[in-house]
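Before relying on records like the one below, remember that each one covers exactly one chain. Contacts with other chains, cofactors or solvent are not represented anywhere in the record.
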Amino acid sequence: MVNLKQIFDSRNVDGTTFGTITKDNLFSLKVIIPAKKILIHYHSIIKHEFENQNKIELENQILTELRYWLLPMLMNAQVTVNYSNAFMQKLRGIDVKSYCNRKNNT
């Protein structure tokens, strides 16, 4: 079986940076659709990874908001930073639902 890279490379014969891939090219590809049991098993494995990714994205959003709020005060020496790990431990244990509710109510 030919892999997708070989198929797409064969469509890029005119030496352009990006070859042309049309909707017909994509529809002509053979795709294996797994059995429902396999999809359910896959979902049970990957669900945790997506939840973890969402938590990390929320953490990044919170840290970005904190950066925009704190940076001017830090630059003007209005606040100082205590480099303990307590804040980061507290941030990692944040209740995502309560944070989102707080954001929606403001």
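Residues 71 and 79 are 9 Å apart (CA to CA).
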